[in-house]
C-alpha cells in the first residue's frame, strides 16, 4: 500500500499546488517542496529499514509488493513492486524533485501553481514508472510523464533563436517520445497476444510474460520495439534529436528533471523489461547496442565541444554519458551494470548541478551564450568554484562518483568487448576537453563587463553543498549503493552468462 | 404483425418520436424556448431510461432487430442526443430567429438514428438513414442568414443526395441478384461465390455509407460543413450520425460475408489507411478548430475501419469502446465550442485565436478542452487511450501490421495538431481577445459539461464497468 501512496502523493500534491495559488505565491512552492521531501523521506526510511540481501530469490522476489486487479477483462493489474534499483531511483527522484522546486523558487514567477502541478505530475509519473510491474501500467506511467513535461517546456521555457521556439522544442520532445511509446505499446500487445495464443491466458503480468514462449522471428521485432522506445528516451544517437532542443528551451527545473531522472527511466526500462523479457535476442543484439553506445559517446562529446549555449553543451555531454550506460547495460557483466547504476546516480547529481548552475548564471547575467561570458571568476563569488567541481566530476575525476561509475563500466566491459572499451575511453579525453573548454570560456579569460555580481544565497548554497556532498559520498564510499542493487543486477548479468538457454524466472 | 411485446421493444423510438410530435404541437400552440428544451431533454432522458425495459422484452418487430448492437447504438445515440439538447439551450439563447424548431429537428434526427442502429432490412435502413439526414440539412443551415451556414447546408444536401443515390443503386443491384431485402435472408442469398453484380452493389453501398462517415475520398464536404454549420448541428453530425452509420456498416459486414471477401476487404483497408493519413495530414496546419475537428474525425473513422477489416470476436466490443470514447471526447470539444460561442454574435467562435489564453479566464473550460484533445489523441488516463488500446490490440491480434503501422504513424501526426490546440489555451498574450460571453449560461449546460469531463477521466482511470457492459452486449450480439 505504501508503494501506491508513493505514486499518489505527488499527484495529490500537484492538485493541491494548483489550488493553493489563491493562498499566495509561496504556498505552491512550499507544498511542492514538502511533497518531494516526503517522497525522499519515505524512500530513505525504506532503504534504512530494508534488508537487501534477502530478497531476489524465489521465496521473496521483491522487497515490497502490492497488487490489485485493475481491468480483469485483459488481466491488467495494478502491480507495484520495489527492489533495490527502484528504491535508489525513487530516492533520486525525490531528491532531484526537491531541487527542481528549489531552483525554480525565483525563476518561475508567473502561473506558479500550475507550474508546480506539472512538475509534480512529471515526478509522480516517474515514480510510477519505477514501481510498475504490469506492462500496461508501466506503459501508462511512461506516457503520463510526457504531457506535463510538454507543458513545462512549452509554457515556462526560454525561446532561443527565431525558429527554435520553446513550443517547437516541446512538440518535438513529445512527438519523439510518444511515437516510440506507441511502438512499445504495439510490442507489448504483440507479446501479450503471442502469450495468449500459446497459453490461453490473457495477461499483462511481468512474471507471466517472462516465461512467454515467443516464436523466434517475432521475438526479435518485439524486442526491437522495446529497445527503440527506451533508446529514444536514453537517448541513443540516431534517436537523440529532441534532447538538445528540449534542454536548451526548458526551464531549469525541467532540465534538471529531464537529465536527472527522465533519462534514467530508459536505462531502468532496459534493465527491468527489455533484457529480462528477451535475453537471447538482447544478447544477439548486444554488439549493435554497444556500437550505438560508442557512437553516442564520441558523437555527444564532439558536438559538446562545439556548442555556444551552456545548456546545449551539457545536453550533448549527457548523450555522451548515457552512451557509457548503454554499453554497460548490454555488456552482461555484473560489474559493468553496477557501474552503470553508479554512473546514472552520479550523472543525475552532476548534470542537475550544472543545469542549476547555468540557471543561476542566467539569473545574474541573462544569457546562456558562452560568447558573451568570460572572466566571471572574479565577478561572482563561490559559484565558479562550484562549477569547477562539477565539471571535474563530469569529466571523471577520481574521488567523484562519476569516476567510479565510468571506471566500473569500462573495467567490467573489457572482458567481453575490449575494442569497445578502447574506443569509449577516447570519450573520456573528449570529456575533459569540453568540460575544461566550458570552464575556460565562462569563468576565465577577459571580463566582458566590469562589476561584481551577487553571490549565492542560502538556498543556492544549500543545493550546491548537498550535491557536492552526495557526489563525494558516493564516490568515496559506494558500497552501500552497490549492496542495495546487487541482488537486482546479478540475475540480469546471469541472463547473459546463461547463454542461449532461456533463463526463465529470473527473480 | 406487431404485438404488444414488440411495442415495448420499440419503446425508446416511440418515446422520442412522440416527443417530436409533442414539441411540434407545442410550437404551434405557443413558443417557449425553455419549455421546448425541457420537453426535449426529458423525452430523451425517458427514452434512455426505458432502454433496459425495452432490451429485456423479447421483441422482434418486423424489419427491425433488437440485439446487443442495437442496444449499444441506441444508448450511445440517446446519450449524445441528450447532451446536444442540453447544450443547445444555452447556445440558442442568443439566437434571434425562431429557436424551438431546432429541437424538433434534433428529435427527428435522433429517431432516425435509433431506427438505423436497429434496422434489419434495407427498407428500414434507407428510411432511417434519410430520417437522420433530412433534419440535418435543416440544422446545418439553421442560421440561414449567415452565409457560411447556408453554404454548408446546401453543400451537405447536394453531396448527401448524391451519396444516397449510390446507396440506392447498390441496394437495387443486390436486390436484383438475390431477391431479398431483409439482411439475414440477403446474407444467405449472397453466400457462396459472389458475382460481380453483388460485389458492385456492396461497393456502392460502401460508397454511400462512406460518405456519411466522411472516409477519404468521400470526405470533401466535412471541413466546410463542420465549420459552417451551427455548433450543435455539427455535433449531431460528428456524434449521432457517424456512430449510427458506422454501426449499420458493421452490421452489414458482420451479417453479409460478401464484405469480407477478397478485393473488397483490400479496398476497405486502403480507404482506412488513406483516411488515417489524409485526415491527420489535412488537420496539421488548420487554424480553425471546427475544421480541425472535422479532419480529425476523418482520421478517427479511418482507425475505426480496422474493426470492419479484422472482425473476429473482439470487433463488436472494440467498436463499442472506441465509439463511446470518441463520442465523449468529441462532445467535450464541441461542448466547449458551444459554450464559448453562442449565436448572439452571428458566427461561432471557431477560429483557434478565440481560444488563445482561455485557461486564464475560464480554467474549467480550458481543462475540459485539454482533456478532450488528449482523449482524441489517445493519451493514457483519458478515455481515448482505451479506445486506441482496443484498436491496436485488434490490429495486432489480426496481424494486420500495415494497419497497426498506419494507426501509430497517424496518431503521431495527430499529436502535432492536438498539442497545438492545447498549448494555445495556455498562452497569455497582452490585449487578449475576450471571447467568452458568460451571460445566460444556465446550470444545465455546466452540469452537462461537468459530466462529460468526469466521464473522460473516469473512463481513462477505471473503465472496468463500462468495458464489462460493452463486452456483455457484444457477447449477446454475437449470437445473431
Automatic annotation (TrEMBL), chain A:
The chain crosses the membrane at residues 30-50, 70-102, 114-133, 139-158, 179-198, 218-237, 258-278, 284-306, 313-330, 336-356, 376-397, 417-437. InterPro entries: NADH_Q_OxRdtase_chainM/4, NADH_UbQ_OxRdtase, ND/Mrp_TM. The keyword Lyase does not apply. Belongs to the complex I subunit 4 family. Its main location: membrane. Keywords: Membrane, Transmembrane, Transmembrane helix, Ubiquinone. It holds the Pfam family Proton_antipo_M. This is NADH-quinone oxidoreductase subunit M. It comes from the Bacteria.
